[in-house]
């Protein structure tokens, strides 16, 4: 009998822990991601069951995972640049604010730093927003909750990028949704999403440098 309350308590703590990384980025868009990383690391340390779900990488094969991710990332670049971003900017009447990245243009050193940060953040964001929240969350709450966790993480992912303005947050939220759908379609394996996100960020960084 005593095991039931203990199990319920453990489940509650796991539920709180798997959603906890979303809190810092809601409270502090942009810089909150650093706290989110720390919260996720703590969860991975104290909840052993979280590790397998969070770090489940390969779908089908490494080559297939990476190739699919690159293809999806390329499609995201074209679709967002030519369809989604113009529609969002027209809808909100404001452009995506990239004023903080103007120094990247034509500056090799700043470009190299920006690219490194963009690629590194792609890996960390996918592990947290897709692997940790959705992947582990599907174990804690049940597989049927995975789509709802994906929608929640996508919305928070967009909000976390409010530094790019309202249009930037909406566009990024859409990108998060696409990555979330990819994650679910790939049986909650995160490598295709990492490859897609890195491709998207790499192309964006090069575009800033050449602008």
Folded structure, characterized:
This protein is mostly helical. It has one domain (3-210). Helices cover 78% and strands 0% of the residues. It has nine helices and no strands. The protein is globular, with a radius of gyration of 18 Å. The termini are far apart.
Order of helices and strands: HHHHHHHHH
Q: How many alpha or pi helices?
A: 9
Q: Write down the overall mean pLDDT.
A: 95
Tell me the count of domains. 1
Tell me the radius of gyration: 18 Å
Helical proportion? Answer: over 70%
Précis, in short:
By secondary structure, the protein is mostly helical.
Which features does this protein show?
mainly alpha, globular, 211 residues, 9 helices
Describe the secondary-structure layout.
Elements (H helix, E strand, L loop, with lengths): L2 H17 L2 H6 L4 H15 L2 H6 L7 H31 L15 H34 L4 H14 L5 H21 L5 H20 L1
Helix pairs in contact: 1-6, 3-6, 5-8, 5-9, 6-7, 6-9, 7-8, 8-9
């Amino acid at each position: 009998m005593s095991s039931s309350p203990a199990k319920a308590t453990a489940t509650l703590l796991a539920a709180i822990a798997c959603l906890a990384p979303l809190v810092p980025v809601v409270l502090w868009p942009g810089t909150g991601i650093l706290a989110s990383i720390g919260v996720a690391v703590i969860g991975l340390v104290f909840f052993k069951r979280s590790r397998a779900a969070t770090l489940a990488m390969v779908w089908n094969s490494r080559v297939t995972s990476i190739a699919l991710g690159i293809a999806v990332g390329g499609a995201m670049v074209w679709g967002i640049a030519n369809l989604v971003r113009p529609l969002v900017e027209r809808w909100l009447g404001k452009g995506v604010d990239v004023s903080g990245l103007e120094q990247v243009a034509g500056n090799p050193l700043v470009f190299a730093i920006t690219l490194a940060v963009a690629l590194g953040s792609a890996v960390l964001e996918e592990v947290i927003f897709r692997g940790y929240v959705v992947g582990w969350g599907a174990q804690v709450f049940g597989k049927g909750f995975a789509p709802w966790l994906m929608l929640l993480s996508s919305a928070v992912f967009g909000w976390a990028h409010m530094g790019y303005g309202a249009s930037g947050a909406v566009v990024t939220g859409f990108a998060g949704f696409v990555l979330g759908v990819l994650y679910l379609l790939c049986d909650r394996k995160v490598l295709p999403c990492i490859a897609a996100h890195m491709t998207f960020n790499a192309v964006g960084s090069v575009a800033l440098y050449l602008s």
